[in-house]
């Protein structure tokens, strides 16, 4: 009633101990002595002819279940021996229900565990057990009909006991199978997490890359981008995942302590612009999209780029693509230098009243955002164009910098960026 296939791995998972029989269900019902005598007489004949009975069951299994055909091709001796052992326990349980029960249950429990390791479908395994039960019952009937046809009627009294035994062991083998199946699933999920975490941390070993590529379903070669998502509640983050990566791009998501990371295969192109909007149900969710790296081994570098982009995101939510914010990335990756530049350029404004200082800096930021147009900046700030120009001239006088000089303008822009990004929360 079972197949002998060795597991693919050297270390076998084993479920916990075989559960005890359910209380209140005797092995066999109360039957008269004559019915027991008929059952035992036929069962002893089956026991003596156990090799032939094993051959019959193996032939039926080969015909009706593909996985058993494969087993007989790869390990015919081991398969036959295990079918023989299982049938032996079944017949022994008919002759000595109390004494043989524990051994039969242990045998069945091991079968379920082994089949789960081998990945044989549970339906096929249960079918094999029922075929074995049918063959044993058929053998009991045939032997009684041959030697004492008048006793056939007595077998009716033991039929329920035989099939109760089969049902009990089908339940047992299914419990064992499912327990090991859960253990295997946990191991697979945990291995996936470990391999993905190592890639993102940049600690993955070269020898582990082929396995990582297989379990993540991503090629070792190829161009990758990492997307980092933080903030919001789980449902918002799930929406952000779908919105941040366009359909059709292969991606593996990994949940980290502070952010969710998507390892995205972008092929020969670049990652398109994210379609997420920092409003509505995704408000408060921050998305950082790093730069492109070559190969799965460089995913750790891609994650650091995504973290940099995530740092640039405003606290209220939004999406930042690193390639579009490289000056800001320079600031957040060297905060000490950014703070020094901000102090050097904007330090002279410290002598002003805070409200006055904010007016000058807000005007400068609006002018830069409007591409140096005082007219557009004035509309944004709800003031006159000349007011904007006067504030800009005052800024130049206080800082001794010229907005018309390219070198000064670059330093001023970076200093404003550093002030915004490095300002304490």
From TrEMBL:
Question: Where does the record place the RsbT co-antagonist protein RsbRD N-terminal domain?
Answer: 51-191
- Annotated ranges, domain PucR C-terminal helix-turn-helix: 360-418
Start and end residues of each CdaR GGDEF-like domain: 204-312
The record's annotation in Gene3D superfamilies points to: PucR C-terminal helix-turn-helix domain
**Where is this chain compositionally biased, Low complexity type?**
1-16
What InterPro entries is this protein classified in?
CdaR-like_regulators, CdaR_GGDEF, PucR_C-HTH_dom, PucR_C-HTH_sf, RsbRD_N_dom
**Location of region: Disordered:** 1-26
Q: What family, per the record?
A: Belongs to the CdaR family.
The record's annotation in PANTHER family points to: CARBOHYDRATE DIACID REGULATOR, DNA-BINDING TRANSCRIPTIONAL ACTIVATOR ADER
Protein's name according to its UniProt entry: PucR family transcriptional regulator
Q: Which organism is it from?
A: Streptomyces flavalbus
